[in-house]
Inverse folding.
């Protein structure tokens, strides 16, 4: 590649070692596609999770289904090319951790580097629209003098990127800045105890900081699907499933969320009964829920499958109204993991079909082989 390309223009590198590394990544994507849950992509700071920080990676991230797609010396334009040339094809990870752009800093303006990062996020979201993106702000680097100039430039870029990316719900982007754990407010030096001798790449202690601060963000997992364990919550969820099954044809508006939604049924009941109930509105609020709980509730609603079965049966009955219909419940299946979750869902769907309020004609019998 040459410096003629801008940070937002996909650029291939011609060095043999780079092409070999790119091919290795393509092979990993092809062979492990279904098992890849987290992708780390970027430059040397990502790649060195496999060497400098291998002990952390092997114990914590590899078991999560994480893969390391870092290539040393890459800039934003190179990662753009890699994304567009197969490295993420066919994947559906829950999360992509992105660290790219630090190598653009010495060569391009702040605005150009920001535009390059923005292009990477755009391209990642276009390729993986259902995946959350966690972008790491640039780490301090002390390999160029005067250090203050470099660190000031990095902070200016970070201050521009953070409000652009953090909480960007449209692109499912999140931002993590660990800069101040690695350099003082004075911006006149880096904390060298966290760096290798080159003052550019972190040592193991530096990666421990990255790991610790990233865990604080990921442990919150507001984008995950999380079930709550309280019995009352599970009962409330089942009540909602039953309502969906029995009133599907009449439901025109759904209110879904936490206590502020649920309280329409108590604090706001007078308004609800007068205005919203006659419109076919339904209240699916559960007190104490967070985003991850609502996501789980949406993911674990079998009504679409049940409604599909109901439509098939109804069409058959309309076509041959005098015939008896034997509906065979779903057989157990063990082709997806975890099997226990799959079987519980099969049982739940069968239960709903059997007595969940779906108005099958009386001539229909449900045979449950499960």
């Amino acid at each position: 590649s040459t410096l003629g390309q801008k940070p937002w223009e996909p650029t291939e590198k011609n060095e043999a070692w780079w092409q070999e590394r790119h091919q290795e990544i393509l092979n990993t994507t092809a062979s492990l596609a279904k098992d890849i849950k987290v992708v780390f992509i970027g430059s040397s700071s990502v790649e060195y999770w496999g060497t400098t920080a291998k002990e952390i990676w092997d114990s914590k991230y590899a078991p999560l289904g994480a893969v390391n797609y870092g290539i040393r010396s890459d800039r934003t334009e190179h990662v753009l090319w890699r994304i567009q040339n197969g490295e993420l094809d066919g994947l559906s990870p829950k999360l992509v951790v992105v660290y790219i752009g630090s190598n653009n800093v010495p060569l391009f303006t702040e605005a150009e580097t920001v535009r390059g990062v923005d292009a990477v996020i755009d391209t990642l979201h276009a390729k993986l629209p259902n995946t959350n993106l966690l972008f790491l702000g640039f780490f301090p680097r002390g390999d160029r003098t005067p250090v203050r100039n470099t660190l000031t430039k990095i902070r200016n870029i970070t201050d521009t990127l953070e409000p652009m990316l953090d909480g960007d719900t449209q692109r499912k982007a999140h931002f993590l800045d660990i800069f101040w754990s690695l350099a003082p407010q004075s911006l006149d030096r880096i904390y060298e105890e966290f760096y290798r001798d080159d003052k550019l790449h972190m040592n193991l202690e530096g990666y421990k900081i990255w790991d610790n601060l990233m865990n604080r963000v990921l442990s919150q997992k507001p984008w995950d699907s999380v079930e709550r364990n309280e019995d009352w919550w599970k009962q409330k969820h089942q009540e909602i499933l039953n309502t969906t099954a029995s009133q599907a044809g009449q439901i025109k508006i759904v209110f879904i969320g936490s206590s502020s939604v649920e309280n329409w049924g108590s604090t706001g009941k007078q308004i609800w009964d007068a205005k919203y109930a006659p419109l076919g509105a339904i209240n699916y609020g559960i007190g104490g829920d967070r985003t991850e709980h609502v996501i789980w509730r949406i993911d674990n609603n079998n009504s679409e499958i049940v409604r599909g079965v109901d439509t098939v049966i109804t069409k058959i009955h309309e076509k041959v109204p005098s015939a008896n219909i034997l509906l065979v419940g779903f057989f157990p299946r063990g082709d997806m993991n975890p099997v226990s979750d799959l079987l519980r869902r099969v049982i739940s769907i069968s239960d709903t079909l059997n007595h969940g309020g779906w108005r099958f004609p009386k001539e229909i019998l449900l045979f449950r082989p499960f």
In short: The chain is about 45% helix and 10% strand.
